[in-house]
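Write out the 3D structure for:
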Amino acid sequence: MDRFDIVIRGARVIDPESGLDDVRHVGVNGDVIAAVTTDPLEGRVVIEAGGRVVAPGFIDMHSHAQTLGGRRLQACDGVTTALDLEAGRSPTAGAHAREQDGSPIHYGWSASWALARHRVLGRHEPDGSVGDALRLLGDISWRGTLSPRQLDAMLDLLRYDLADGAIGIGLLLGYAPEIPPEEYLAVARLAASSGVPTFTHCRELVEVAPAGLADGAEEIVRAAAETGAHMHYCHVNSSASRHVDRVLGLVDRCQREGGRVSTEAYPYGYASTVIGAAFLSAEGLRGRGLRPSALTYLPTGERIADEGRLEQLRRDDPAGLVILDFLDEADPAQRAVLLRTVGRADVITASDAMPLLPVAPGFAEDTWPIGAGAVTHPRTAGCFARMLRLAREEGWALAEVVRRCTLMPVQMLEGVCPAMRHKGRVQVGFDADLVVFDPASVTDQASPANSTRVSSGITDVFVMGTRVVSDSELDTAARPGRGLRGSGPPEGLAPADRRSLWR
């Protein structure tokens, strides 16, 4: 009998591509799955997993928690790949070069439209660091009008990042509502010609900002129809909020007519961003039917008392993190809106995980456990376990929820990111990126009061065959994660051309 490096015995194996959902033994050799069988297996390490589920590791397409601490929290939530495709990073080559210390999980990012704009306007030369794009969110300097020459230079910078391995183009359009729709279409045309998707934080909807330049949802589907680009609609639950049924109906109609539009959502009624975001002005909140007290300012933990305090914080600390209650989960009608969104079969699960904000002296990124040393949105630590808990409580098919956390993002990205072709399945020859969990007990434990508490019921996580989480304990020395890159556009720019693009 062959002896495997690792054997997971007697688990319920869910493979969303083949439809397998039955008890099997799984053998791993090196970094690949070597057996999925009913036959007995022997291994150097044997995990008796009766009553538990083995599934592909979760693929998070929308994670801003791109530091060691954030990635560790996500690993404990069953995530084996976390990509920042909404905000992106730039330059792509520099971002990968900064990843020198290793990562517990795989990572990657899109080309950042916001940073490219900032660059051609002469405001900032990005260095590929984690915080570059997020620091822009409350800054108005990158939102100026581009001349035709600057627009061409900005598009060329995006081409460079695609050539260097960026996975599509991320557009933070909701943070720059004055940008003309023609520029958005120009970026969509670039994406279409390059064969890559875009990932959009949309403008506000017409119900919220009737005087806006475009309805955020209609703009996305229009771009898909006019350019043929694959337009991905980020966090449709928080962007559309109580208007999500109208928005998803629009997406459905576009898809039926052949447009390539996809969506994602996270299972929370409260969001997180920076307090200086354009849509968090007093006027923007009123458009959503919200008051300043819907915001919690994370550096102090305070509920914002009134519009005066809101404007003071937006002026003094525009990059300060906040949590925004956009739905009241205690209200049955509003909770039903959330569940209808995240429970839809065609909506990918993505966390929108947020960076860690240190709040205690001495906190460092390698601190573990994180405890009270830092705060974040609870979705950073608990998004995927919460989806599994909801599947149990709401009677959703577990295999379908697993598909939306694994195979759906893989199928969306594998045409532009070659590494994805080997992920998202529990099949022989595929990467041994696996999660083992107890379907009867798995749950999120992070809350606004304890935002870094890790999920429970996720007992083992493997990244390329390395056991990053073992018996519910993180191995802090494990760093098997790899940087994932896009395959680049069909025709890139010659490296020698790059020096003249933005100067």
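Confidence is low (pLDDT under 50) at residues 492-503.
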